[in-house]
């Protein structure tokens, strides 16, 4: 049986790297997209080939140039023999008050977090339709797809936009056997969030989160791997929040004042 071909953006570290490990364990052939850290991507490819006998190629993707990124996906898919799974994982974080945000930074965040994922998903969907064997598109958004955060104007807009794109594409692609879902993590212990590789989430206290800690990248990766599997073929258009209960806490800060006049 031909192994599924999966492309993961932001695969050199964090959630992306652990998603690659999870899909490699399921026998996928991998295309590991990276932004700047080519060495880490190549090291991961070697690790996966050694541990799982999985073919893993690395692919430089400049998500600040969405058109070029989509062209890179097409070339990589042609070389690999197609594409069955796209995981739009890469993204950047930014905090700036809306009244202080500038146009250039706004456009940069949207290019990387929204426009590139759109063009990559569009290119992958076209290939999947032509292949005629269905497919999976999984967009990694954020809990801030659903709830705002102070200073998150560009970031929250991009992530909520990607969440709505997920739903629209799910409707349009269902008849082709292609599912489209988003995974919305809360705080996750990754280098992007200032947590070095090797530091387990249980070592970090987060009293405001019901579970008391951030998430592990492996926990998010396991969810992505499930959505990429044949067992998830009836799930589409969903946004699966994986945040340790963080989003449940919206009213708690005000609870102490309830009943006061």
TrEMBL record:
Keyword presence, Transcription regulation: no
Residue stretches spanning the membrane: none
Keywords of the record: Oxidoreductase
A Pfam match: adh_short_C2
GO molecular function: oxidoreductase activity
Family matches, as CDD domains: SDR_c (cd05233)
Keyword Signal assigned: no
EC identifiers of the protein: 1.1.1.-
Protein name in UniProt: SDR family oxidoreductase
């Amino acid at each position: 049986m031909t192994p599924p071909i999966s492309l993961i953006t932001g695969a050199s570290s964090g959630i992306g790297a652990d998603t690659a490990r999870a899909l490699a364990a399921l026998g996928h052939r991998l295309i590991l997209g990276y932004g700047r850290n080519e060495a880490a991507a190549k090291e991961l490819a070697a690790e996966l080939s050694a541990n799982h006998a999985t073919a893993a190629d690395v692919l430089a993707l400049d998500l600040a140039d969405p058109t070029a990124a989509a062209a890179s996906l097409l070339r990589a898919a042609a070389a690999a023999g197609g594409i069955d799974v796209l995981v739009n994982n890469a993204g950047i974080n930014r905090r700036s008050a809306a009244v202080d945000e500038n146009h250039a930074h706004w456009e940069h965040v949207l290019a990387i977090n929204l426009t590139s994922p759109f063009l990559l998903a569009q290119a992958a969907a076209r290939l999947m339709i032509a292949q005629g064997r269905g497919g999976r598109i999984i967009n990694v958004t954020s809990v801030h797809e659903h709830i705002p955060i102070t200073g998150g104007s560009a970031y929250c807009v991009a992530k909520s936009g990607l969440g709505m794109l997920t739903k629209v594409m799910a409707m349009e692609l269902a008849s082709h056997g292609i599912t489209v879902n988003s995974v919305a993590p809360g705080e996750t212990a990754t280098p992007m969030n200032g947590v070095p590789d090797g530091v387990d989430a249980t070592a970090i206290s987060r009293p405001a989160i019901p579970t008391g800690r951030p998430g592990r990248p492996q926990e998010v990766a396991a969810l992505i791997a499930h959505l990429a599997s044949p067992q998830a073929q009836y799930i589409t258009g969903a946004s699966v929040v994986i945040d340790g209960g963080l989003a449940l806490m919206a009213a708690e800060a005000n609870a102490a004042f309830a009943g006061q006049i």
